[in-house]
């Protein structure tokens, strides 16, 4: 039986891989305007149609956003985060928190068993940055530190798939938190639940860590439903 010859992938697929690699590496961060068509054509040594086909495909997956008359911008760091952002849309904070409640609880349960001393130290440092940023009125720094803590728990779970799923919630979460900041009554600064969670992780209390992680998100979800 004769095998079919291996054929060279379509040129647009190679361009897609090159652009995706720039985004994944952080060379083109989220919100960055990518080079215009002529520059991409020059750098990649391909025709305009090939560039347009690749950009169109990446826009469809959610990695890029084409703004007519303005340019093309990086929308997400991966196809998964792009899909999350697209599906999340304008549906509100509640749906995102429902998903996070499940992920946070499982991540905390695993982290209580698997987290090393270095990871626990990083979580403590994130909470310190979080508190300092809140008192300084630096909301962007507060969101970054808050996310570092939660993503750090996911990483400490020792489950790479869970951690990757969690990281892909980053952009929709940041957008939701920015909206929440502008709403009177937002109590995101309360450190008690996060400190209690860290204490449970340090004492290797898996059930307690899972309960507290779920409670932290449930409290935010209840506040979102009341506003």
From TrEMBL:
PROSITE patterns: HTH_GNTR. Transmembrane segments: none annotated. Keywords: DNA-binding, Transcription, Transcription regulation. SUPFAM superfamilies: GntR ligand-binding domain-like (SSF48008), Winged helix' DNA-binding domain (SSF46785). Gene3D superfamilies: GntR ligand-binding domain-like (1.20.120.530), Winged helix-like DNA-binding domain superfamily/Winged helix DNA-binding domain (1.10.10.10). The keyword Transcription applies. SMART domains: FCD (SM00895), HTH_GNTR (SM00345). GO terms for molecular function: DNA binding; DNA-binding transcription factor activity. The keyword Metal-binding does not apply. This is DNA-binding FadR family transcriptional regulator. Residues 9-77 form the HTH gntR-type domain.
